[in-house]
Amino acid sequence: MRAWVVRAGENGERERAALEDGVLVVGWDRLALGHLSDYDTRDEIRAAVAAAYPDEGPYTIGNWTGQLYRFVHEIQPGDLVVLPLKSSRVAIGRVTGGYEYRSGAAEGMRHVRRVEWLVRDLDRREIQSDLLDSLGSLLTVFEISRFGAAERVAALAEGKPDPGRPDADEFAATLTEPAKLYEEVRRRGDGEPLTLSIRDFLAVWGVQRRHPASTEQIKNDLEARGLVTVPPFTDGTLDSRIAVLAGGAEPDESGSSAVSRLTALKAMSTMVNDVLGILGSPATETGPAPSGVSAGLTGRLPEEDDETRAIAYRVSNLDSANRMPECVRVGDSLGTATTLMVLRGYSQLPVLDTDGRLRGVVSWESIGRARMADPAPGLHAATVRGQEANGSDDLLDWIGAIQQHGYVVVRDPDHKVCGLITAADLTVQFGTRVRPFVLVEEIEQRLRRVVDRCIPLDRIRATVPRGRASRVHSAANLTFGAYKHLLKEPDNWAALGWGIDQDHFLAALEECRNFRNDLMHFSPDPVTDDQLSPAQGLLELLRSVDPQT
Fold first, then answer.
1. DSSP label at 72?
2. Are 150 and 1 in contact (CB under 8 A)?
3. What is the DSSP track for 256-316?
4. Which residues of 462-488 are buried (b: 16+ CB within 10 A; e: fewer)?
5. Any bridge partners for residue 6, and if so which?
6. Confidence of residue 167 (pLDDT cuts 50, 70, 90)
7. Contact 240/198 with Cβ under 8 angstroms?
8. Which of 4, 26, 5 is nearest to 99 (CA)?
9. Closest CA to 513 of 546, 470, 479
10. Average pLDDT taken over every residue of the chain
11. Cα separation of 534 and 307, whole Å?
12. β-strand pairing of 383-384 with 358-363
């Protein structure tokens, strides 16, 4: 049994029909060519998508092809599916039928799968944050497989609590404040360093994302208590693991610090490899780290004066940079490579040596060039030099190369391949990051329009300090926070003519203001659907009371 997410449109426009008719529905209406199930391979679906959408680039076509192939062929009867709803709740169903094409259905309702809805209104707060994060992709159709997702969705569908990830660090949940973290590090000493995920580490301070304010607070607390993290907690994804050490403790009898002693273990390569196989480096999803050894052994040491690394958008901040890609090995046949590329719909594959280091990349272009010289080339002849980045590199420095070549292979500090970033990954990543800004911008635009239309300028000016009033010529000159003060006045609220509860609206406005302020502080961590839902709800309310476009 597998678990999937199938969205009901970008704005939930197919949500009602999906729930009432008992179906999963996807768009792509230009593919009005009968049953997609008649197309057995990704290449056949890709050709159909490219013909229906001739203005789209190859990476968009590839991304759409993958989603449609999953919807038609990979989702099976008996699989579970999650449908995120506009109401900040989710529905969970069990797939009961194969793909159908309904030629007579309304636009946007033609590609369907039958589903039995088991739960229609599950509160998102019943789902733990790591599983919620997995639901946050902007893709319409995708599988959720990390952290025991299928079993957890099954439990939720039966009305049981989310059991949490199988490798959940129950001990980390007891570290509810910095003082407890400090006491635990002191109790263990450097012989048994405390290891935990960055997500659990941030939770000690009650935060979910790394932005300058929270990062500065945590750094100050660590410095005041003589603690350091290896690698720095500002590097990697939220699920990367770090060790917390007493970096400020005096040297031991050998004259070395706790950090140096931990790092010295890296020289013991056999031991490190065994340990990484147990706990999983940031490139794997193997299980929790044992308490005695840190996943940060191969990580870069924190530098005392390295302020520039406090917050940066690193290559390692992308999930795909920490997920071992499908690959072939030196000595494999070219047939092995092409078979994998067709099966998975890949444009290229890394070629690795026996130590896991990159020896090149094989792509459809390189295969074509090799066959021009030799009708039956081997893998070596079709292997070309690959684009290779360190996980600690600035992601922005690699965007041009990814756009030009379509990918970059990611290596860890030991120069072993640990991930692969494609142009499609960038599209999803930055689409996720842009969405909150677009949402907040529409909220502000709607507020400005209705205020300018309904409230006289003199009353708008009365909201700001007297010395600034002359510079206010419309609602566009107000700060976001000023709307709460403006609209709590009875006359101003009455002027809007809205038949909604004022107190609830102002509370939602304040919650959105806090979300907006947090958003404007750069963070390498994505905004989840759960964090976005209050602002999304406010926007839907504004669209309802002021439907003018």
1. I
2. yes
3. --HHHHHHHGGG-HHHHHHHHHHH--TT----PPPTTS-GGGGSPPP-TT-GGGSS--BGG
4. bbbeeeeeeebeebeebeeebbbebbe
5. 141
6. low
7. yes
8. 26
9. 479
10. 81
11. 34
12. antiparallel
| Distance separating alpha carbons of residues 274 and 297, to the nearest angstrom | 12
Q: How far apart are CA 480 and CA 448, in angstroms?
A: 10
Which pLDDT score is estimated for 284?
A: 32
The pTM assigned to this predicted structure is: 0.47
Which two structure tokens, joined as six digits, stand for 23? 């179906």
Give the single-character DSSP code of 474.
S
In the chain, what are the domains? 3-157 (3.10.590), 172-311 (no CATH), 319-415 (3.10.580.10), 426-545 (no CATH)
pLDDT per residue over 83-142, tens digit each? 998 887 899 999 999 988 887 788 778 888 999 999 998 988 888 877 887 787 768 899
Which residue's structure tokens are 């890296």? 266
Q: Report the amino acid identity of residue 293.
A: V
Banded model confidence at residue 281, pLDDT cuts 50, 70, 90: very low
Rounded distance, CA 157 to CA 359, Å?
46
Structure tokens at 544: 């309802």
* H or E stretch at 25: strand 23-26
Is the pLDDT score of 174 beyond 80?
A: no
Return the pLDDT at 286.
31
Q: What local confidence, expressed as pLDDT, does residue 234 receive? A: 83
